[in-house]
Amino acid sequence: MEKRVTFRGWMLPLLLILPQVVISAVFFFYPAGQAIWQSLFIQDPFGLSARFVGIDNFTFLLSDPFYRASFVTTAVFSVLVTLCSMVPALFLAVLADRLIKGSGVYRTLLIWPYAVAPAVAGVLWLFMFNTRVGIISWYLGTLGYDWNYVLNGGEAMGLVVVASSWGRISYNFLFFFAALQAVPRSVIEAAAIDGARFWRRFFTIVLPLLSPTTFFLLVVNVVYAFFETFGVIHTITAGGPQQSTTILVYKVYADGFVGQDLGSSSAQSVILLLVVGLLTVIQFKFIEKRVHY
Amino acid sequence: MERAIQGMVEKRGAGLWLTHVFMIIGVLVIFFPIWLAFVASTVAQQDIIQPPMPVWPGDQFWVNYKNALFSGVNVPVATMLFNSLVMAVGIAVGKIIISLLSAFAIVYFRFLGRNFFFWMIFLTLMLPVEVRIVPTFEVVAGFGMLNSYSGLIFPLIASATATFLFRQFFLTIPDELAEAARVDGARPMRFFWDIVVPMSRTNIAALFVILFIYGWNQYLWPLLITTDPEMNTIVMGIKQMFPSGDDFAHWPTIMATSILAMIPPVIVVVGMQRLFIRGLVDSEK
């Protein structure tokens, strides 16, 4: 879509667009280019010299068991976060949608966690499940369960998944609720007259009508799990124990800043760029589809 | 008849109560972590390190909050709150300004390189800061912007989302308005200030809500570039309050800080709920 009426001149528009272009160039394109460039070199730890190695960094990464494990960890983590944040959200949205009065109050209460930063959410959950003072770990202890996420990789994963999903429930709830409100009443009433009960109506009519929203949320939540959960993981487990919660983004940070391995960290950045690119393409393909819907 | 059908669709009687009960349970479960943090911020350290901690607030509210705000652990929390405020407002206002300008240029002008710049901005959609941290850090360090507000703000203000949002909106402004402005001999910037900006008011406000929260909740970037505690933001500063050794963390102070860290974004989200939901839905389109 284009404007028919435009203004003349070329200096002014260039000046107007300049701030954004300069900032994008300095803080986006130059660093991204640097990441690609550095990924072809091996630097000594002091940054004094660099040796060109071509794609060695990539081949090494792909054969590195730790990196592969991190891929698997990321996949497990994002599937779990997506499920744990979407299913409760859909359930709550269905409940809120059935209420004639009062859904506004619940909505106001339910959007709170969205405002809580992932890193702060991490601290809140860390506090409840802390091995020494956590109230939930204490009650688990009285039930005879020896909770220790510091040593047990599975428990650590469970904790970061729950802490990451918590704030996302609000977000997903808002989208599901809006979508449910948009389902035509007449369709549902017609099914009700035909004798379809609530759950049957839900699975045969409502859920298919929600599919554009569901698919959109799937993609957005996977992107969230990949890139925005750093704060949760850094505050709760710092990637441990034994790297069992080291997702890809955390590994870029750990190798680049803690381990000072620039070549490997850059190569990981490049691989992540490809992942982001892929996810963005999926998202746009979907948006195109939704226009026809 | 009408009522009977409605009865089949919307819950009444026992079913309605059950729906409310489930809803209340859901809200309570979701609220529990925040409630517990609040309780922890009102009791003494002894109450917490001898589990189980109480689940009802104590009488140390003023002591803990005063201690957090004016002494903190590494730096007073008031300082961190101020830093977060500068960063969040800086990012929100900065993004809105540069996006308004560039969207105006892209929609209302035909100039050489327009398509090129459009795609250049579009590509930045795909580069979250988490992905390019090392080189971006080097750029910022090279400019001497470590431990500065400009270092906290600038790398995060270029994003395509706001530009696209404004572009979409500008395309819906009737052509007659631009036509009239041209006939009257108004200069483009005059049209921008008198027509475009006032018409975009709601969009600007909705975007401000979303961007403020985005900026406030940043973690990784401030963690990398603020080595001086005086420049810590509150969201990244909480983690710095934990002792590195085997000591007990001072939970009442930490939890008071956590509550303080969530108050501004919660006020913005709950207080501007309509704008927030609108901004959320728009910026994800």
Automatic annotation (TrEMBL), chain A:
Pfam families for this protein: BPD_transp_1 (PF00528)
UniProtKB keywords: Cell inner membrane, Cell membrane, Membrane, Transmembrane, Transmembrane helix, Transport
Parts of the chain that traverse the membrane: 12-30, 71-96, 108-128, 156-180, 201-227, 267-287
Subcellular location: Cell inner membrane; Cell membrane
Gene3D superfamilies: MetI-like
Superkingdom field: Bacteria
Keyword Manganese: no
Domain spans labelled ABC transmembrane type-1: 71-283
Signal peptide span: none
InterPro entries with a match to the protein in the record: MetI-like, MetI-like_sf, UgpAE/MalFG_permease
Keyword Transport: yes
Mode of membrane association: Multi-pass membrane protein
NCBIfam families: PRK10561.1
Function as written in the Swiss-Prot or TrEMBL entry: Part of the ABC transporter complex UgpBAEC involved in sn-glycerol-3-phosphate (G3P) import. Probably responsible for the translocation of the substrate across the membrane.
Subunit text: The complex is composed of two ATP-binding proteins (UgpC), two transmembrane proteins (UgpA and UgpE) and a solute-binding protein (UgpB).
Similarity-based family: Belongs to the binding-protein-dependent transport system permease family.
Protein name: sn-glycerol-3-phosphate transport system permease protein UgpA
Originating organism: Pseudovibrio japonicus
Gene name of the encoded protein: ugpA
From TrEMBL, chain B:
Primary location recorded for the protein, binned into one broad class: membrane
This protein's UniProt keywords: Cell inner membrane, Cell membrane, Membrane, Transmembrane, Transmembrane helix, Transport
InterPro entries cross-referenced by the UniProt entry: MetI-like, MetI-like_sf
Entry annotated with the keyword RNA-binding: no
All copies of domain ABC transmembrane type-1, residue ranges: 81-272
Topology versus the membrane: Multi-pass membrane protein
Transmembrane spans: 21-44, 85-109, 116-137, 149-170, 191-214, 249-270
Keyword Cell inner membrane found: yes
Localisation per UniProt entry: Cell inner membrane; Cell membrane
Similarity annotation: Belongs to the binding-protein-dependent transport system permease family.
Chain's role: Part of the ABC transporter complex UgpBAEC involved in sn-glycerol-3-phosphate (G3P) import. Probably responsible for the translocation of the substrate across the membrane.
Name of the protein: sn-glycerol-3-phosphate transport system permease protein UgpE
Gene that specifies this protein: ugpE
